[in-house]
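Read as chain and fold; for instance:
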Amino acid sequence: GIGGVTVLKECINICPNHNYIYISDSKNNPYGEKTKEEVIKYSENNIKKLIELGCKIIIIACNTASTISIEYLRNKYKDINLIAIEPAIKQAYINNKEKGCLIMATPNTLNSNKFKELYNKYHNDNFYILPCTGLAHLIENNKKEEIINYLENNLIKYKNNISSIVLGCTHYPLIKKEIKKIIPNITFYDGSIGVAKKLKEIINIKKYKKTKNNITFIDTNNNKDKEKRFYEIIGDNNE
């Protein structure tokens, strides 16, 4: 859906002057509470579409899709440069060893083998895990009042115990302001910077030439409101 725009913004920042095609899967999102089989199916459909459009590098800008489907996709599409976002647990662990850190993610991401692998490798006793059922859906549909209520009900108990939050869903960076209203002095970690750096690495290795930096938005439901919001977020420099 619209969440991947937070990753795209970081990619454009680090890798400007390239053409980007963005698929918003309004027909099927959010993926966070779908079955594993559904997530793989939808992810593969999007990959096929991007290959048809001539994409040389494909970024899976959804933590749920990445953690669940990346192994399958890399095995099947070996000739495509696939970059998968993942929760920034390692980054939080390195910078936050002695203070409390909250990991916010969808149930599917938290239940994935990839997440468990990362968590078991980097977690400490100061990590808290919060399954955010339904939050991505509220953000996707821009339900501002319901988002505030959701955050107030779910974050208040962590207010005095944490100094950072891992935003384990690409939708969540869109509500940093709302989170800071509840926990003002908080540091955020998400996987978008790592994705953008990997993109730059591949572009340099493959020696892809710079272009005019065209951005094409495609929505699987042809949702014009989503398209309008997409370009508004792309042009917004405030968090």
In short: The CA atoms of residues 136 and 172 lie 7 Å apart. The radius of gyration is 17 Å. DSSP finds eleven helices and eight strands in the chain. Residues 36-52 form the longest helix (17 residues).
